Amino acid sequence: MKAEKDKVVGFDYSLTVDGEKLESSFDSGEALWVLLGRGQLIPGLEAALEGQEAGATLSVDISPEQGYGERSEGMTQRVPKKYFQQAAKLKPGMTTVLALKEGGHRAVVVQKVGMTTVDVDLNHPMAGKSLHFDVTVNAVRDASAEELEHGHAHPPGAEAH
Ligand SMILES: [Zn+2]
Question: Ligand 1 centre and the CA of 158: distance in Å?
Answer without folding.
Answer: 9
